[in-house]
Specification:
Structural class of chain A: alpha+beta
Low-confidence stretches of chain A: none
CATH topology of chain A: Ubiquitin-like (UB roll)
Shape of chain A: globular
Helix content of chain A: 10-25%
CATH class of chain A: Alpha Beta
Mean pLDDT of chain B: 96
Number of strands of chain A: 5
Shape of chain B: globular
Largest interface: A-B, 22 and 43 residues
Largest sheet of chain B: 7 strands, mixed
CATH superfamily of the largest domain in chain B: Aldehyde oxidase/xanthine dehydrogenase, molybdopterin binding domain
Oligomer: heterodimer
Number of domains of chain B: 3
Radius of gyration of chain A: 11 Å
Low-confidence stretches of chain B: none
Distance between the termini of chain A: 37 Å
CATH architecture of the largest domain in chain B: 2-Layer Sandwich
Strand order of the largest sheet of chain A: 2-1-5-3-4
CATH architecture of chain A: Roll
Strand order of the largest sheet of chain B: 3-5-1-12-9-10-11
CATH class of the largest domain in chain B: Alpha Beta
Number of helices of chain A: 2
Number of helices of chain B: 22
Order of helices and strands of chain A: EEHHEEE
Mean pLDDT of chain A: 91
Radius of gyration of chain B: 27 Å
Largest sheet of chain A: 5 strands, mixed
Strand content of chain B: 15-25%
CATH superfamily of chain A: Beta-grasp domain
Chain lengths: ~80, ~750
């Protein structure tokens, strides 16, 4: 299962924990699994945050592959100037 | 990507295709367009920092001969109020709509409240004076301390803090927190702990060209806009959204852009020009005066940062903790999140936390400015590191190298770094002759590191092969930093043809697929990736056409050195791109390729700067006498334009450190709305900025490109401030280091 790290602001919505072991072969599946565990959390994350899968940042993720040993961080989106 | 890949064009320095037009004045910028039926639009702006609009009487203005249209917020659809209401008062498009034209209340001095279109600029100005507005002035807040006080006047009466459970009404639009580990535990492990507070003032991006547009509308609802911006698709989308128009009915034609630096990633005039055009039935041109640019467009605003750093006696960082307050202007939306994400990013920390507050004040709505939020954050961290190095009696570059982020380091903003060039950049700085050059009296040297993410986002590209063998490339990104040249170089590289055979066109919104703004250091990386893909599409077609000519399977044809060749032993003479292009009509028709992608694999960027200053003990004037910028570019496609980015960023940062600040009076009126009183550095103020390009290729880009446009503005502020400390023995923590402030510091009046 992938190791998922949430933004600190969302920890209260996820049992007070930042880190979770989640099953899913892509970002959408991870979000669905998180949502099943913590109703509403998936919707909170989807379309609003970027994700880093094993260090690579995706600003607008959906079907990016997640490996069973992946480290997945949800983080704020950053554009630039 | 192969490290050994040999390039013919990538890494060379040809003249930019748009250069002659730009230096001879032939290039058309936003204000250069005109139509035969054109009217001039002008905006009436608030004389109050905060007031309720009790009434607006337009009748006298309408009656003036030559006036064809007058508008207020009543002429704009109110589309986003419900969305804002259901989200604690916050909605980005609601903010944008209320920023382009005040509705109910004015929230800063200079806030637009009405606009007119008339046959001449003079008549439009006269008409503005005939608009009668009654205001009920309200109390205002202008700084962070006042805005976050428990009894603060509210900029908005309906906004609660996002990111805080159960928050009430507040001027704090948002609270964010990032980090890992437990800073308290980390500080317990430290032998030395330093905690300091820093403040910065609002500064302008310093683009020379004011905001400008020309709008033409038709009775059947079509809109054409000529506009100077960092992204004509952004102008199309924002204008259409605010006015509730189908995107297909809005065509935006990009003008050349005279600087943006983040400040032209939003709209101010375009929706107003469209409404005035619709009301008058004529085309309408609007150009901000310099004063309007300062009073009403978005700067980056003031900040207050408290930072604590812990280290062992061996110089290993044990913990970092920072609290960042960033002003977002009248609507919030500051860059504090990026400040939180970047502040500790260049180093490894076992325990780190940053907490950010986005604070609303009665100042113009803030806008992006080159690596938004990062320079102020670097000012705090990199000057504290300098102090820590002194306390630990270690070389400041060595201290940074001991802690520098590398592949596998857990970044303070979340993930583990992939391949990054922080260490290589610092080593190049340390080994540069500048770092060990002697200094004279009253002189000092400072160093600092800067980090920025760089962006990918969406890009489209088209590659059309012309019958004479030349190539036309279509891009959807306004060319700010030389992207025509870099895209042409990559195209020439892909085909194996001469650079001069490639012409890059910045296509309008109806002629190329969607493309995100020229911003986030993304164009050479992301649009470059699209161009490479589109060229590959054309190459594949060229091989197919050669196969048709030779009557062989396409798999037997390969593209090498600018020509199609038959694999293996063959007597067939190769077919050049020009030959295949000439015969395209007989082998299947015109040849063109396209690509549209969301660019993945962004390579993060690090820079390290050395600054030498001389401080005049009599006047407090700081002169930068030598400056070297080092940066990991991944791969420099056109090294001159990479160096240009590094030099430009360095000079902007020097200005931010030494000169630049918005000065508001107690009524919230900007006192220095022009480049005479808001002093940005000019060429004679700074030495030649030396540059060193480090190339740690981004493994995720075909050529190894990392974005380079924003990193260079991050390190200069702390590099300058550390140099001033080295020269004077005084640590300054409030920008800018203007002569009176430096003199007071030298006199011991306000050190720190």
């Amino acid at each position: 299962m992938a190791r998922v790290v949430l933004p600190q602001a969302l920890a209260p919505r996820a049992g007070g924990l930042l880190e979770h072991e989640v099953e899913g072969r892509n970002v959408r599946a991870l979000l669905a699994a998180l949502d099943a565990r913590f109703p509403g959390l998936g919707a909170e994350l989807e379309g609003r945050v970027a994700v880093a899968i094993d260090g690579e940042i995706y600003n607008d993720p959906l079907l990016e592959a997640v490996e069973p040993d992946s480290e997945v961080h949800f983080l704020p989106r950053v554009g630039g100037g | 990507m192969s490290e050994e890949k040999k390039f013919r064009w990538v890494g060379t320095r040809p003249i930019r295709p748009d250069g002659i037009d730009k230096v001879t004045g032939r290039a058309n910028y936003g204000a250069d367009f005109a139509l035969p039926d054109m009217l001039w639009g002008k905006v009436l702006r608030s004389p109050h920092a905060h007031a309720r609009i009790q009434s607006i009487d337009l009748e006298r203005a309408k009656a003036l001969a030559g006036v064809h249209a007058v508008m207020t917020a009543e002429d704009l659809p109110d589309l986003f109020a419900e969305a804002a209401k259901s989200n604690g008062g916050h909605d980005g498009f609601n903010d944008l709509a209320h920023n382009v034209m005040a509705r109910g209340r004015v929230l800063y001095h200079g806030h637009a409240i009405a606009a007119v279109a008339a046959t001449s600029s003079a008549i439009a100005s006269q008409a503005l004076e005939l608009i009668d507005v009654e205001y009920e002035p309200l109390p205002h807040v202008l700084d962070i301390a006042s805005a976050i006080a428990s009894d603060a006047t509210l900029v908005h009466e309906d906004r609660v803090t996002q990111g805080v459970e159960g928050a009430g009404l507040s001027n704090v639009a948002n609270r964010v927190q990032l980090g890992h580990g437990d800073p308290a535990e980390g500080f317990d492990l430290a032998d030395e702990v330093i905690e300091r507070e820093f403040t910065t003032r609002p500064v302008h991006q310093g683009y020379i060209e004011p905001h400008a547009c020309l709008a033409q509308t038709t009775p059947d609802g079509r809109v054409t806009l000529w506009s100077s911006s960092q992204g004509h698709f952004m102008v199309r989308d924002y204008t259409a959204k605010l006015l509730d128009i189908d995107l297909s009915l809005v065509k935006v034609i990009p003008a050349e852009i005279g600087g943006g630096f983040g400040g032209k990633t939003t709209v101010y005039l375009e929706p107003l020009a469209v409404v005035l055009s619709r009301k008058s039935g004529r085309s309408v041109k609007m150009v901000m005066s310099r004063e309007e640019v300062f009073r009403a467009s978005g700067p980056t605003l003031g900040t207050r940062i408290k930072l604590k750093l812990g280290a062992t006696s061996e110089g290993v960082f044990t913990a970092g903790e920072a609290t960042l307050h960033y002003e977002g202007g009248a609507f919030g939306g500051s860059s504090v999140m990026a400040g939180c994400m970047t502040i500790f990013a260049p180093y490894a920390f076992p325990h780190v936390r940053s907490t950010g507050y986005d604070v609303m004040v009665n100042k113009p709505k803030g806008a992006a400015y080159r690596a938004p939020g990062a320079p102020m954050a670097a000012f705090a961290l990199e000057t504290v590191i300098d102090e820590m190095a002194e306390r630990l009696e270690v070389d400041p570059v060595d201290l940074r190298l001991r802690n520098a982020a590398k592949e596998g380091t857990l970044a303070s903003f979340g993930p583990r770094y992939r391949r990054v060039g922080c260490v290589e950049t610092l080593e190049a700085l340390r080994d540069h002759p500048h770092y060990s050059a002697p200094l004279g009296p009253h002189q000092g040297r400072g160093v600092a590191v800067g980090f920025w993410f760089n962006a990918g986002l969406q890009s489209s590209a088209g590659v059309n092969l012309n019958p004479d063998g030349t190539v036309t490339v279509l891009s959807g990104n306004p060319d700010i930093g030389g992207s025509r040249a870099s895209l042409a170089l990559m195209t020439a590289e892909e085909f194996g043809i001469e650079y001069e055979r490639v012409e890059v066109v910045i296509a309008d919104t109806q002629s190329i697929g969607y493309t995100d703004v020229t911003g986030g250091s993304r164009v050479t990386f992301a649009t470059g990736m699209a161009v490479i893909e589109a060229a590959a599409d054309v190459r594949r077609q060229l091989c197919e056409r050669a196969a048709v000519v030779w009557e062989v399977d396409a798999e037997r044809v390969v593209w090498e050195d600018g020509e199609a060749r038959l694999k293996g032993e063959s007597d067939q003479a190769p077919l050049t791109l020009a030959e295949l292009a000439q015969n395209a009509g007989r082998t299947g028709g015109p040849i063109s390729g396209r690509a549209a992608l969301t660019a993945r694999g962004v390579g993060m960027g690090f820079g390290a700067h050395i600054c030498d200053v001389e401080v005049d003990p009599e006047t407090g004037r700081v002169e930068v006498i030598r400056y070297t910028a080092v940066q990991d570019a991944g791969r420099a496609i056109h090294p001159s334009y990479v160096e240009g980015q590094m030099q430009g960023g360095a000079v902007q940062g020097i200005g931010w450190a030494l000169n630049e600040e918005y000065v508001f009076d107690s009524d919230g009126k900007l006192e220095n709305p022009g480049f005479l009183d808001y002093r940005i550095p000019v060429a004679s103020d700074v030495p030649m900025i030396d540059t060193v390009i480090v190339e740690v290729p981004n493994p995720k880009h075909p050529y190894g490109v990392r974005g380079v446009g924003e990193v260079p503005i991050v390190a200069p502020i702390p590099a300058v401030v550390n140099a001033v400390y080295a020269a004077t023995g005084v640590r300054f923590r409030d920008l800018p280091l203007s002569p009176p402030k430096v003199l007071a510091g030298l006199d011991g009046e306000s050190a720190a």
